[in-house]
Amino acid sequence: MQLLEYAIRGIPTGCVFALLAVGLVLTYKTSGVFNLAYAGQAYVSAIVYYELRKELEWPLVAAGVVSILVVAPLIGLLLERVLFRYLRSAGSMAKLVTSLGLLIAIPEIAKLVFGSETRKNPPPLWWVRRTDEWLWPEGATFVLDAGQVATIVSTLVVVVGLVILFRSTNLGLRMRAVVESPRLAELSGVDSERVSMAAWMLSSVLAGLAGVLIAPLFASLNPFDLFTLLVAALAATVFGGLSSIPLTFVGGILLGVLQAVLAGTLPTDSVLTNGLRPSLPFVVLFLLLLFRPGLRSTRELVDPLATVDAPPPPPVVRARPQWVATSARVFGVVVSLVALLVSWFALDQYWLGLAISGLVLSVTMMSLIVVVGMGGMLSLCQAALAAIGAFALAQVVEASGAPVVVGLVVGILVAAAVGALLAVPVVRLDGVYLALATLAFALMFQSIFVPLSWVSGGAVPISVPRPVIGPLDLSDDRYFLVFVVVCVIATALVVIRLREGTTGRFLQALQTSDVAAASIGIDGPRARVVAFTIAAGIAGFGGGLAAIDLGQASYEASFPYIIGLVWVALLVSAGARSIQAAVLSGLFFFLFPALLDKLFAFPGNWVETNPDAPSWVASIADTIQPTWAQSVAFILFGIGAITYAKHPEGSIEAQTTASVNALVRRVEARNAAREPARVGGPGTGGTTP
Amino acid sequence: MSDALLSATGVTKRYAGIVALQGVSLQVHAGEFAAVIGPNGAGKSTLFDCLTGVQRPDRGQVTFDGRPVDSLKPAARARAGMARTFQRIELFGGMTVLDHLIVADRARTRRGGLLADVLTGSHPSSEELDRCATVLELLGLEEWAERPAESLSLGKGRLVELARALVCEPKLLFLDEPSSGLDRHETDEMGHALQRVQREHGIAILLIEHDVPLVQRLAERISVLDYGELIASGPTEEVLSNQKVRVAYLGGST
Amino acid sequence: MTVPVLELDHVDAAYGPFRALFDVSLRVDPGEAVALVGANGAGKSTIARVASGLLPPTSGSVLVDGADLSGQAPFRYARAGIAHAPEGRSTFASLTVTENLELAFRSARPKRDVAADLTEAFTLFPKLGERREQLAGTLSGGEQRMLALARVLVLRPRLLVADELSLGLAPIVTADVYRVLGRVRDAGTALLVVEQHLDHALALADRVVVLQQGEVTFDGPPEQLGDLSTTVLLPAGSPSRADPTDAAATDAAATDGGAT
Questions:
Q1: To pair with A10 at 20 to 30 A between CA atoms, which of A294, A674, B241, C103?
Q2: What is the mean pLDDT of chain A?
Q3: Closest chain C residue to A167 measured between Cα atoms?
Q4: Which CATH number, 3.30.70.260, 3.40.50.300, 3.40.1190.10, 3.30.450.40, labels domain B4-250?
Q5: Is A520 on the interface with B (CB under 8 A)?
């Protein structure tokens, strides 16, 4: 009986999971986007509701209507008009990366618009100020508070409404048709544009509703708490096979009940319980992804009319003339040397430190090249693997007093081993599911393993000394810079060799066609496990270097999973196969916010030193906050990822290709002025005679 | 029985209650040109999938080159000497025609692993390039070697698939509707290529095809599938004049 | 002089940088059956797409029943009476047979009695009636074409653009499809038939249009085609001509694979 009571206590939480999960299923069914940015959309409505209800003290209905039924659908409409309508025929991977970019950008935009101060005690969607001001039934041992009642009622209404929408309305039928093929739907007389807009507005309303309802669960409004909850709710989404609304609802309720029962029955003091309770949804998500029957066989439906669009540029343009390759290499070496000399002599401690951190990060970015760019697997757990490398290094050095360099090697090996173990089940999953499984792993790692002292050393991070190599003491940042540069070059060489060698060729074949690769004897799962493992090793290396750089192996400071998502967005938008992209995006990640910080602080500083400045300058200085720097940087990182759909090869790669092609064309035109112009493909350098 | 290169016995496959294949037995001898025809939905592609290992049959055995291959995955069957092309063309993105062949050659020779990649860079060797050049020449693709696969017409794309399969030095080629979507000229080109492959190189071919004149010209033996069952099998002309086949497949119009 | 149900007036069309049609003019009169023939890459499917609004012309205009619809969304063409059965898969794999039909019936203008339409469709095609709750993606290639045609027979559009309906079909099924096309024509719907197999197309057509490399090179009754029929299907041999419509043919070939 005790058990039943625990179970009932789980239902309100279950409704929260169900509400989020059902909204995701709706978005997926009606737009084909696995919308991670759903959390961002929810966050915006939650902020608007907070501001209206708490700051401006609007009545409940007005605040609710504006935040959920006005602001939310407008956001949905905006996203559809400026972004997703161009992605209707894009692959699920491009859509996922786009939503990842939005997830990063939207909350920061909201912070710019509404201010980034902490918003404590979000108000419930009920006629009271705080959730515990209204309890039901009064005086009973088990009561529901205002927030819970609002959530349960809304969830039931939403689920019933959606079931009716899809079972028996014209709009539901049209939405399902449009998501499969907007053009085929048009041929049946359906106005796809309008249906698609309606779908986005509807799903955005659900996101807004979820955001407003869920906000009171947290002490203060924070987009990443919402996102973590969303990932937890993914277990219910996967339970419903990404398509069934009723099953998803059941999955959400079961998840809440399971969590409550575990919380009630497990001993409260064991390490296992403390780790398992919050991480239960992630464990369930991970297991469901691996074992739910039918998930692997659901193939992505391809729009039969996608070919009406102009063909996208091929992901790799090979066959650059030799002289271009050679001069590019020389140019790269010269630029790097100059940069190194400038850093050595001209940079102060602050900027030198940031440059070093950026280069260290570029090693981890290269692990993404191997797994995402070459392997075609959108791994969202490289930060966790980097953390594993850092922890292994720190533990070995602390326990045995081994040299730090030995610790680095141990870190690589441990990370690679964990990567291999993870890869064996995970590589069998398709695109989106693989991304979700790695995300679940990252969150499991964060909530179960990071708190353990044998992993991270516990609450206080283990410190890691800078190594001394021969006569060079790397605690001098300039010597450390050289060491890091050597590490980056070594990693880059390995990655380039793998990319151009048999490993890379096999992986590239597998990226476009599994069956064709198998038909010539390539063992797909094996090749992917190898790629994943190598990437994990490189991430471990990058993590170890980051620990040495910082002087300690700190999960909080260096490797939170959300930061890992930003890395993915950044690298993928710069060019998932390109070494330059990895190095530049690593540097960019650290230098760009710092530069913006200086820029935004400049007007204020200038006014301070020039008291007689005109008033309009002072007002500008007042408006521009240095705290904008982080927001603006993240928004740009996010927007970068949004461009992925247009340039799957990455912006840097696209730029390079464009300029190389222009150069090649100019030279060829000069060499062969008498020959009539050819219509041939870009940069192929003509056909062999 | 024992001299058959490929021998399938009693292959049965069901999906969700629908019987796709019912006890199909089929043999292909070394160096022969055989074809499978049948109406849409008769189970031809499922049969191919079961023979090449893409799907596991519910019942039945497949032996190839004298040994059972039932437990082998598609990649392993490919290395044992089965190669195939696809009804929906399956080329590798971002690769030139030559790259396709080099990848296939590497998969066959197992040259270049991780260590070799990192230490040597695994550039194409002159022997590899020679082998690929031979196949390109056989199919008249020399001019297209450096072109990205995305820029090829469907006809050329199908030839590249064939070339990729040939580099694997197969004993048996599975061809899934190689003339589908091709115009008359391209179909002729494909037919000549297939004839050369079989006659000059002694590679056995098993063909699925709807183009009856093409099948008539190429195949020595035909098996006819209808509703998952083998309704006729034998020399081409004999089978095509079979009354049952005319009713089920040709509809008397050809 | 009758107003043509479809008229392409000096139309150019392109896929991104690839030009596919060069100054094509073409008209289809009410009730007329026109066969469009040519080699792969000649631009046949492109004309079909321009005719149904899927691909807006880069210059020139498309008139449906005398009204200029150039650049409008395809659903306007559909509502104006152009039905297009695109090459390859032309049904929604994730919807049931009934839902596929309902979608078209409910979107037709003026409003129609959907229940009566469904009954009529299943009477015309009893095979589809047996599978009404089955997902269209699980139908065989031939049944999918019949589903696409059922819609047309019930709605009686002004023009059916039939793009390579026999692609990937067994001879017996192809014959069936052409029997149905004959019924479509007899019911008064004009036809624009894109076809690889000349014999089928010519048997059905009142007029033949030959396309070569994106240009119309012959337009007249089938009898006058003469020796041309053997040469028109030869493509341009140059490797520098890449035509993305070929990729469409690839997709088309794929759809039957799912069903068998």
A1: A294
A2: 87
A3: C99
A4: 3.40.50.300
A5: yes
